[in-house]
Amino acid sequence: MSGHAFKEFKINWGMVIDLDKCTGCGACMTACQVENNIAPMVDASNKMRTLSWMLVFELSNGKPAPEAEVAYLPRPCMQCGHPACVPVCPVVATDKNEEGGIVSQIYPRCIGCRYCMAACPYHARYFNWEDPIFPKGMEKALSPDTSTRPRGVVEKCNFCHTRLMHAKDKARQDGGDPEALAEGAYIPACVEVCPTGAITFGDLKNPEHKVHQLSKSKNAFRLLEKLGLKPQVYYMSNREWVRKLGDNYAAGGKPGAEKKHS
Amino acid sequence: MGLDRRGFVKFVVGGVAGTLFTPVIWKGMDDAAKWSQNWGWIPRLPKGERKAVPALSKLCKSGCAVKVQTVGGAPFAALGNPDNPMSKGGVCPICAGSVQLMYSPARVAGPLKKVGEGKYSPIKWEEAEAMLVEKLTPLKGQDGKIAAISGDETGTANEVLSALLAGLGNASGYCAMPGEMLTATRGVKLMGGAGQPGFDIEGADFVLMIGADALDSWGASVANQKAFAASHPTGEAATARFVYAGPALNNTSGVCDQFVAVPPTATGVFALALANALISVGATCSAPDFADYKALAAKCTPEVFEKATGLKAEVLKDLAGKIKAAKAPLVIPGASFGQGSGALDFVAGASLNVLLGRVGQKGGMTLLPAAPKALSAAADRAEAKDAGSFMAQVATGKAAPAALIVYEANPAYALPQAGDMTKALGNIAFKVAFATYMDETASLADLVLPAPHPYERFDDAMNPYGVAKPTYLAGKPVLAKPVVDAKDPVDVLLAAAGKLGLSLGFETYADVIKAKAKAVGADMDTLTGGAAWTGEPKGGSLSLGAAALAKAPAPKADDKAVALAPLSKLACGTTELACPPADLLTIRDTELKGKDLFVQMNAATAKKLGVAEGNKIKLTGGSGEVKALVHVNEGVAAGTVAMLMGFGHSAWDQYTKGKGDNIFKILTVSDEAGTGMKVWAGSTVTVAKI
Fold this sequence. Notes:
Oligomer: heterodimer
Strand content of chain B: 15-25%
CATH class of the domain at 181-368 in chain B: Alpha Beta
Radius of gyration of chain B: 29 Å
Distance between the termini of chain A: 34 Å
Shape of chain B: globular
Helix content of chain A: 10-25%
Largest sheet of chain B: 8 strands, mixed
CATH architecture of chain A: 2-Layer Sandwich
Distance between the termini of chain B: 92 Å
Strand order of the largest sheet of chain B: 5-4-17-16-15-6-7-14
Shape of chain A: globular
CATH architecture of the domain at 181-368 in chain B: 3-Layer(aba) Sandwich
């Protein structure tokens, strides 16, 4: 285990998701499923059983018609700087120990105790209640990038980690530095597919990457910032009600937050 | 040497101790643990060289230019093609899961012949093609005996269908499934123009969408989304405002600067009341019928607006002020579910573009010239009959075709009053369905001919509805051979034409597309390499359509009924395609739960109807009824119930069959005054608790 202390990395792969540009179309969820070999479920309306590494939530301002408004919030794994899931794993099946700060999930090690799921405040982790069943023939369209998981293990978004490996390989082959990837050399499937470009991806610590500046903009916020988990996923919205929902009305924190909890 | 008792005990104890010390047992347990984790029943990943092949996926209505990722020659994912000017690297939710659809359990694996009610037997292609020719031969030259319904809005396959029918003396039998394109082209005609309208979202600084779900299911949605994204750079100030005026909060309105909740029955009133508000703040134009238009608009007073929409008149004033202040405003009329609105609703919305002087301007409404044809014998796309009206005639016996060719369409499911349509199909003696999937219509057909998936065929897309400039895309197969025993429908039709003694000048669809590309002035290889050809819109002006609008009936007040707003979401499929397996996850549990569909309404409507969250209700309209659970959603317009389309399939596969209900059953078809068009966008339903 990497220990419970906050671990600094030179690179922090992260996202800034512009909620004012997300139409909630679901292309990111679909691309994620395809990239990560998530088998389709016959009853996908049973949300206690589905596996959605990327999940688009619908937010409502709670006002009556005609003042009602909605916003859509894509939720990948937050790749927390100080993850709640890592210290609770009894078998080190999940760790934050690789340059880039992506929280790993090692399926063959996972014993399915689901402590990590209980610990994750973002509900970003999913348990395989069943073996993956692809309809006959569909297994021929499996992505070569993500191993399929059996029943009994927990899984989650890993920012399409194989894409990072490919980007590093390419950098090495081209004589570049795999630890200094240019912006755009590595992007997860959801970012690539999004028709409105709502998700910006890059190294949060690299001033040459757009996310560096965007994460510091006045309308940027992180989910449940009050918990101190330091997610590597930021959101932004010009709408105050959306920002307020983001930190669940916690005291302090970001602009727009108001004190609700004592 | 004998073994005494003591010796035996020593041997056993020694043996046990020895076994414990040997690594064999531990190694065995370790191996058992590891090997039992080898999950032989879990699918293995493919290996091989990886490539990205440009392709055109026409699973969504407008078509997505994608790059199909392959490993060892087998496709596994579709990603965007950044080089394509239409999609600019974006992919819609359907096409994002398109590769998996090649292996859908609903795919038709080979030619099928009906042998009994719901029973099919596989046959060889030779037999199937011979049967097609045999059935069509006696009907040759008898106009009205052969009909074809196409569900493809953009492909040159339509020209082949149309030319084939014309060559067989059945030119009047060519029908198209309803959609915005048909309505809009007729609307343009009523405004004194000709051609398909286009909307330059990219160049506009204020986009008002009346009903049109332009950022999800309307028009070239990915291109529209890209245009929206360009005007809303992340972290910077937006350069355009987007306003959605429609029946419910949807994916489009989720990112709009403003949402105006307009019931689907009040779309026309909203547009004219806005015209009135604009004229009162000084909007004027040089159209010859301005005076008549002004008088008409004046009838849509703020009071009329308030009554029809349940909104306050200030909304209108505010909106008119913003539009007036914009440099390049654009109004996009449409139906919330991409079909069923009348030409007059289109005219009412589009006339605002004329009033604001935005026709033919950058960021305005354009008119596209008629596309050059590959087959001179083919009719213009706009001349196709509306399949809904045609099937209504079949139902009443006014039309009596003996053979029906269904091309990439699902009329048994996706026409209003779907129950009647299914019955009407029964009146046709021979039905042949060219279908990739075993849909409701294929399940009724006498002959089912499997069509290739988009990545197994040549196909093209001319002027997907909504594009501002003439646009042409083409794609070639990613796979050399389809994964099932499929044949290109156009190849089959061309061969059949030959056997029927008709030469259409081509042998394969690839040749047809080559000719089309040449006629357009594009290079086939460049197009199939992932590029798009674009031309220039034609000039010309439009009238305000006052003469047509004058015939529009005043909205009827019906206290018992509520307006029905079908909502369309690309991720739930299209009229031709059931929700793809890879998109099922995107459906919320407030939209579908188990097999129950939800009907959404605001709290005031729920109170008026005497229903509450979670109640099971029955909605009656058209010629059928639909059961659903109530979900209170404040984002639905006053006096309106909203429901998602794309459910209630009786065919397809385990992922979609029997889930929810088909909203097409409760849409009521009526005749639009003055145009004679069939409309169903302003349908109303009655609600009863069960």
